[in-house]
Amino acid sequence: MPNRSLVAISDLHVGYERNKTVVEGIRPASPDDWLLLPGDVAELLDDFTWALSLLRDRFAKVVWAPGNHELWTHPADRSPLRGVPRYEHLVEICRSLDVVTPEDPYPIWDGPGGPAVIAPLFVLYDYTFRPDGADTTEAALERAYDAGVVCSDEMLLHPDPYPSRAAWCAARLKETERRLEDRPDGLPTVLINHYPLVREPTRILRYPEFALWCGTTGTADWHLRFQAATVVYGHLHIPRTTWHDGVRFEEVSLGYPREWGPRATTPGALRTILPN
Predict the structure, then answer these.
(1) How confident is the model over 242-272, as pLDDT tens digits?
(2) Count of alpha carbons within 13 Å of 11, Cβ hemisphere only?
(3) Are 125 and 46 in contact (CB under 8 A)?
(4) Residue 25: Cβ-neighbour burial (10 angstroms; 0-12, 13-18, 19+)
(5) How many CB atoms lie within 10 A of CB 115?
(6) Alpha-carbon torsion 120, 124, 126, 130, what sign?
């Protein structure tokens, strides 16, 4: 259909009632639209399942990449799973709903603006987005703690069975690079990740120390190496379009009610990724 589109939104955080109402109002312009969800749908498994089930019923295809909040072992959740077992359980939920995950074959978008490989990624972060003057992870974390800017991941996102989140990130980088290198030759990609793949979008954060929990320098050239037509991400809760090395980056967060409430834009508005 000529009006078929690839659209995206992230950071739905449906644990907030106002956000849940926004999600209930999300609908495709065409029944053939695909929806990209770059993470932070919800912290609790029941909320996560509710949101993905609702959206999968409305869109022809839904593609999910995990955010940090899905990976939390939250004290209010019904599941005690931590780290890799929790991620694997999230993947099982998605597969039961026919939602594409980073563990599944990358689908090919053949609609307007295509063809393109749609690649949901899960690579985490490794504390390499450090504040200026902090040359080591230890120094950067010390500065963040001194400033009182500490991501809740430090308490709730466990890396089991890896010894650290940075080690889990290293393993994910290696596996994800392998899969991207094996993608169909000659096709551009749409890379979907919760975190920005490059450091530059974090430069406008109100608290620069928070960049530590926003990505890894290990992905700095992926938009070029893997022929990205567009990179889609969230996490920063600063929806905007930027360009890096001639590649379009789309931050597509909804964010918390206190953030989207004052904006002039319609909450829950989907960003069109393809066609451009």
Answers:
(1) 999 999 999 999 999 998 888 767 777 899 9
(2) 21
(3) no
(4) exposed
(5) 14
(6) positive
